[in-house]
Predict the structure.
Amino acid sequence: GAGVSQSPSNKVTEKGKDVELRCDPISGHTALYWYRQSLGQGLEFLIYFQGNSAPDKSGLPSDRFSAERTGGSVSTLTIQRTQQEDSAVYLCASSFAPAQETQYFGPGTRLLVL
Amino acid sequence: GIQVEQSPPDLILQEGANSTLRCNFSDSVNNLQWFHQNPWGQLINLFYIPSGTKQNGRLSATTVATERYSLLYISSSQTTDSGVYFCAVPPGGTYKYIFGTGTRLKVLA
């Protein structure tokens, strides 16, 4: 596709349920990032992938959060046993190479945990 | 960890006015990016600018890495420039981009 796509665009879930968020990066981009943006706040780094490996997982808030990337393309962010404080917009970005290249962002997934 | 501060936090301009947004960072970095988040939440990359000056239409940016700051210039502002402007830097040797606090810009017609 022409840009980074994310699905679903909106997700409402009940506290304690698991959710999966998907990111399709721009074709050919080897680096992929996940960020979280709480209401009215800045962006918080979650995890970075180079290819299928994640050399930096330091931003994941707790062990309820995990992410994987397969085939050097699609990535899934999973939140287990969701809590109300997980409510936020989850943004994915990709770039040709890590750090040295422009990041292109998807439209985000708006997650609301009731 | 590295601190990234932006100023001013809020800015209201009349259409046609010029403005300068500032990004200060507390540690040395190898690169810096500026983003615009429009009122619908979409983030658009404006500049990848680890050092020097770049221009793109009415926007330009300058980064002085040795003095740990970057400036974003908006000339002849338009209502479509409204939104939040973020700078982001990865601390040396990492790919963990740290975003600044943002400048919220509103341009009035």
